[in-house]
Amino acid sequence: MQDVIIRRLRKYDQALITNHFNNLDEEVLLSRFGVPVQLQRLQDYLSNMFSDAAFIFGAFPDPCLRGLGELRLIPDHKHHVAEVAFTVEKAWQDRGIGDALLSRLITVAQNRGIREVHMLCLATNQKMRRLAAKHNAELALVPGQVEATLTTPWPTPFSMAKEITGEYHALARAVLSWPNHVHTSNEAQD
Description:
The protein is of the alpha+beta class. It is built from 6 helices and 7 strands. It has helices at residues 14-22, 26-33, 39-47, 97-111, 126-134, 157-189; strands spanning 5-8, 55-60, 67-73, 81-88, 116-122, 138-142, 145-151. Strands 1-2-3-4-5-7-6 form a 7-stranded mixed β-sheet, sandwiched between helices. Helix content is 44%, strand content 23%. The longest helix has 33 residues, at 157-189.
């Protein structure tokens, strides 16, 4: 998807994130968490989303958050290892949003010296398995799940520039679309 904006999300984006998760159906939530999710557990998860040093990125193919990717360091691991997880709203799947999010998260991991990135998905989640394989992940079957392991290259000036350029591009697009968004919001209030 060419026009999708991928940008880092911060604590002030909590309302966008909550709205995104409220738009997810049970199947997408099951794919994300690996088990059926009760409302209270989801609310607890969302309220603690920024409590650690996670890198959270959002995909904006239109003015709304439609996909979310998380990169979290695995605590107490002797090597620099992280886990990634994704959610993409059902109507926006199969458009390259997951690929765009994973590409950005791999670059972020690379630039921070994280050498391994792990993804867990249900064994039946063919979309995630294909996405992992596309990024040259090693796939291992574990009971009911597939664990994908990506090895990231060392940081380079090019990878640093790629990350910085991505953030500046997202910021510029947001600033340029802001007057239109405010104008549309004001019309809706009238």
